[in-house]
Amino acid sequence: MRNSRRRRDNNGASPQRTLLGMRIDRFWYIRAAIAAGTALLLFVALSIRLIPERITLEPGDVAERTIIAPRSTHYTDTQATEERKQRAREAIPDQYNVVPEAAGLVRQTIDDIFETARAVRTDYEVPEHPQNSETPAPPAAEVEEMIQDLRRRIEVALDEEILRLLVTTGEGTLGRLQSDTLALANRQMQDSIRDNTDDLQRARESIQTAADQLPLTERYQQLVASIASKALRPNLRYDEQKTMAQRNAAAGAVEPVRRQVQAGDVVVSVGQTVTERHIDIMRALGLMAPTVDYTQALALLVLLSIIVVSFGVYLRRFFPEIYSDHRQMLLIAGCLVLAATGFRIALQWPLYGAITLGVSTALAMVIAMLLDTRVAIIFSAVAGLLVGLIATGGDARLVIATIVCGAIAAYAISSTGGRSVVIARTAGVVGLNNGVIFALASAVFGLTLGLNQIVATVLAGLIAASIAVVAVMALERAVGVVTDLRLLELANPTEGTLHRLLTEAPGSYQSSVMVANIAEAAAEEIGAKPLLVRTMAMYHDIGKLKRPYFFIENQFGKENPHEKLKPHLSALTLIAHTKDGHEMAKEIGLPEQVSDIIRQHHGTSLASYPYHLAVEAEGEENVNPADFRYPGPKPQTREAALVMLADAVEATSRTLVNPDREQIEELVDDIISQKVEDGQLDESPLTFDDLRTIRESFVNTLHGMFHQRLKYPEQEEAEQEEEARERDERAQAEPAAEAIENRAPAH
Q: pLDDT tens digits, residue range 95-134?
């Protein structure tokens, strides 16, 4: 096992200093500085609770004493002013913009439907009989095919009876119907049809009424009405921005309602319900001026310090890899400060609860995607404590909702699926969950949420998911992590590089898929990151795109170019694919965690096949094994080591023919032993317990791959003949490929 950077030996002459069992070094000072800075910033963000009002009344409260104005002053009557502004806004009607292309699109839609119907009739060679309104009906089966063909070609959803008339009506009648339809639609489009009203529905009803007056049979009247009404569209588009601008301008032009209060006037009497007007007067009189309680301030600072240190101890104990990374610790600290700041800002808004839950769930999702779901859940608990500390008296229901909603959001965003699926699912879950949990928590304390509060809470949750994803995309590289969403995108077979590998080097692509399947299952067993392992496996051989035909899996029986190369040059060609792949990874911007596997999946292993050819040709004493080794480095992580082992096992397993479990076990044991004896796993954190678990997983996966279906005797006989032929071809070609390299003993 490699030691963490923060545990490197100190070779200096000065004695080690410790505090509570922890070594005092540069790393300790950095962590102490982060903790102190976080606690101080949280203290500043929460300092609003240290400035209590002399009079803490709010609208709706019942005054416990009579308050008298100590002096005369003018004040702005907020409620009266807002009522005037609202009336000014309501006086401005909705604003619309003309849609000049609407009428043309309606005509085009109608023409397209009739022309497509004619095209279908032509395709099915329906004969025309001008003297009749309808052609002799084609066979019923053919009519049904024509209907389905017409339905697929047009963009408007029409009833089957209308489609039947379109494909069975003769050209003369069809032309008249088209003219009538255009006339009705054009006449209706002369009227205003607004897109945010029921104008369109009324216009369609008018179309139906007008069609009923046409000198046509009832079913043709229905055809004309149906096509014309479906083609209609609004010709006036609601302009929200213009409407809001004019309404806001009208509201802004309203002069504030100014009133005067005289010294000695009663502001509010005992037992009276406090209104906005009372608050305006007390604010103007300075009766709500702040004071500071320094004892309370010190207690708050100490409590925040304890919370921050406890969080750090938890991370040090259970997530040492996060605790040892400065950037990730700064991310957590920044999210805590941002949460407290958001809560403080939200406190000034009437929808405080909705905004608070939106902020906390967004940050919990960011932590879950960038770091770990469990860390995000603990973060949600800390955020809940901050919510309780944000204001005097706290809000128990919001503390509970913050913790529960944050935990659920963290779990939801960590679920598997494509990026768009995860975002959509999480947004829905978080939005609905925030509203339900907040309502339940309120009910527990005998409070009822208004409909506007519930709707705002749901919307805040929906927005939080989108903001979280955008934030993760911006922070991913800065924090030095790769998220599951990013890995899911990279592992998608339609991704550019993987698609190239599939089309230009199909053998290498299929091999990578097999390696991914083998390695991913083992990663789950040892507690590594399965999705990261799978993505690493899919990209580990992209360097073969430069010369795919130099690798046996892409030759497909064609001439082997290695037969014309000397062993040294053959080895250089094989070894170069790691360097080529790493350069390609940089060009396409692969995350470092994924691109590192390209250089590490062979470590410093020996290119055995060309090495043995060189020994046979030149003698062992004249061949330097170092010239035939990959440049490395060796695997540095559990995931990289796992991909190396899976790659070697997969390559060697290609030579097996209907193996039993014992043969598979022997193969896996040989590969793992070779890598261990060759020192390829020396720099990875894999333990011997991990290797035993990996060995069992590899055997089970390979056994399943070789025995996934029952074969009939004739199938087995044919497959054995094919496999024997392929073995003969490989023996004759002597391919220089990784499969053969792995079969040769490591040096």
A: 899 999 989 999 999 999 999 989 988 888 776 655 444 4
**CA 542 remoteness from chain centre:** 25
Nearest-angstrom CA–CA distance, 385 and 336: 11
Query: What is the spatial distance between Cα 58 and Cα 61, in angstroms, rounded to a whole number?
Result: 6
Size (the chain), residues? 747
| Regions of the chain where pLDDT drops below 70 | 1-23, 48-54, 70-72, 127-138, 262-264, 286-287, 289-293, 348, 391-394, 414-422, 557, 707-747
Helix segments in 656-736, DSSP class H: 661-677, 688-706, 713-733
The Cα–Cα gap between 178 and 227 comes to 9
* Strands 266-268, 258-261: pairing kind: unpaired
Residue 105 CB-density burial (10 A; 0-12 exposed, 13-18 middle, 19+ buried): middle
Give the whole-angstrom CA distance, residue 726 versus residue 336. Answer: 62
Find residue 19's DSSP bridge partners: 22
| Cα–Cα distance list, 496 to 416, 490, 499, 502, 503 (Å) | 22, 9, 5, 10, 11
Nearest to 491 by CA among 411, 373, 590, 370: 590
Give the number of other Cβ atoms within 10 Å of residue 617's Cβ: 12
Q: Does pTM surpass 0.90?
A: no
Query: Is the CB of residue 509 less than 8 Å from the CB of residue 551?
Result: no
Between CA 607 and CA 630 the distance in angstroms is: 7
- Tens-place pLDDT, residues 177-224: 999 999 999 999 999 999 888 988 999 999 999 998 999 899 999 999
Residues 273 and 347: their CA atoms lie apart, in Å, by 22
The rounded Cα 150 to chain-centroid distance in angstroms is 39
Distance between CA atoms of 570 and 550, rounded to whole angstroms? 9
Per-position DSSP letters for 445-468, written without gaps between them: TT----HHHHHHHHHHHHHHHHHH
φ and ψ at 376, to 5 degrees?
-65, -35
One-letter amino acid at 125 equals E
Place of tokens 């046996």: 552
